[in-house]
Amino acid sequence: MPRETPHGKAGLELREVSKFFGDLEALKKIRLRIEPGDSLLLYGPNGAGKTTLLRVLATLSRPSEGQVLFGGEDIYRNAARTKAAIGFVSHATFLYGELTAFENLEFVGTLFRLDNLEKKVRDVLDRFGLGGRAKVPVRELSRGFQQRVSLARAFLHDPDFLLLDEPFTGLDAQAAKNLAGLLRELPEQGKTLVFSTHDFEQGAAVARRLVVLEEGTVRYDGELSSARLEALGIGR
Amino acid sequence: MHSLKVIWAIFVKDIKVEWRSRETLASMSLFGLLIVFLFNFGFEPAREETLRLLPGLLWIAFAFTGILGFNRSFAGERENQCLEGLSLAPVDPGAIYLGKVLANLFFLIVAEAVIVFATSLWYNFSFLPSLSWFSCVLFLGTLGYVAIGTIFAAVAANTRMREVMLPVLQFPVAVPVFVGAIEATNGALKGDAPGDYASWVKLLAGFSVVFLVLSFLLFEYVLEE
């Protein structure tokens, strides 16, 4: 049985996880525990391993070495359970251009076995300010609106873990502010947030915990408020 | 039960995408029509020759038409990395495979119907006397071909030279399907007793089942990075 925390929800843990792409070691023996209710900012330069780490957590990329545990159990032992608990936003939107925003989400909701699907889709579309564009084919939406649909896709099944790779990409100032507000509320709802961004200020306004990656290793892992940013090479 | 819903949802999604883009079916049908038209134009076969040539000609047309369809089927999934999006869902990967098989089967059968109809006009050949057995052979041969084509198209989708890789990977494996389908089509069109070509029909059915089951079980590894 998966081990659960006192909060009643399972945590994610990486144990000595390495990931190779040919000769390139994108992740080097990463050890990381992500507890329920965490709000974690992954920060680091290009090629630090942020996207690879998020993909490994999302079950999209199997570690070359080490283990990823969900509630103390290997995530691949019951991959369906892990996937049901995760909402993932990537650089790619995972959306079908010919389908409308509504149809894309309805399709995903069917795969996730959601009840009251139509209501849930409408609610999440409204939550991301897409109510007026629900019937527009995704191909005809701007990059910013496509990003919103992509975010709505990740939130649709109300997952416990939200893994967001550069979630603010393409959003205008108002939409980015709304998203930041939404992300700040997640830990209070018992949700866990792990996200990456190149804009440290934007990330710091949301996260409570900071993990700095550099060349595939964890350089810092701790409270964001107590991080010595200058020593980490992060200018504010 | 949920897997059936997933299969149906993927099928319906592919039909909707095709209905709006009108890319796959049109190109498949046109390509197949071009093959049978050029063949007729080049050889102008007499009536007795037509019966001898038709099984091979039809399956050549279906083979190349299928390649186009399989490539298109996963081109849509590659765009915006939708295939990865599918693998994020808590569903049996085999159900994703069967959903794609169902959609590819539908598109190829529609294209085949167009090609067969045009062939009957251009070659002045009536398929009506042998329609039931011919349809049965056509379905089984197409099912076997689609079972192979779908999994290899998914494999090729992750390679750099995917348009070249698909036929290279797929055709050698599909040879038994084409041999069986051509022999059985020959028997059906000649009006032979079904027992005379039953062994070829059984080969097609057996091959289809084996490949469907194998691919269903292996599709999980195809989806992985």
**Number of β-strand runs of chain A:** 10
Mean pLDDT of chain A: 91
Widest β-sheet, arrangement of strands of chain A: 6-7-8-3-9-10
Q: What percent strand of chain B?
A: under 5%
Order of helices and strands of chain A: EEEHEEHEHHHEHEHEE
Largest sheet of chain A: 6 strands, mixed
Radius of gyration of chain A: 18 Å
Order of helix and strand elements from N to C terminus of chain B? HHHHHHHH
Helix segment tally of chain B: 8
Give the domain tally of chain B.
Answer: 1
Number of strands of chain B: 0
Indicate the low-confidence ranges of chain A by residue numbers: none
Structural class of chain A: alpha/beta
Distance between the termini of chain B: 28 Å
Helicity of chain A, as a percent range? 25-40%
> How would you describe the oligomerization state of the chains in this entry?
heterodimer
Provide a brief overview of the structure.
By secondary structure, chain A is an alpha/beta fold.
Write up what this structure looks like.
- The complex is a heterodimer of chains A (236) and B (225).
- Chain A contains seven helices and ten strands.
- Chain A has 236 residues and is of the alpha/beta class.
- In chain A, the strands form two sheets. Chain A has a six-stranded mixed beta sheet with strand order 6-7-8-3-9-10, sandwiched between helices. Chain A has a four-stranded antiparallel beta sheet with strand order 2-1-4-5, covered by helices on one side.
- In chain A, α3 crosses α4, α3 runs parallel beside α5 and α4 packs across α5.
- The longest helix of chain A has 13 residues.
- The N and C termini of chain A lie far apart (44 Å).
- The mean pLDDT of chain A is 91.
- Chain B is an all-alpha fold and 225 residues long.
- Chain B has one domain.
- Chain B contains eight helices and no strands.
- The mean pLDDT of chain B is 92.
Question: Which terms would index this structure?
Answer:
heterodimer, A: 236 residues, alpha/beta, 6-stranded mixed β-sheet, 10 strands, B: 225 residues, mainly alpha, 8 helices, 0% strand
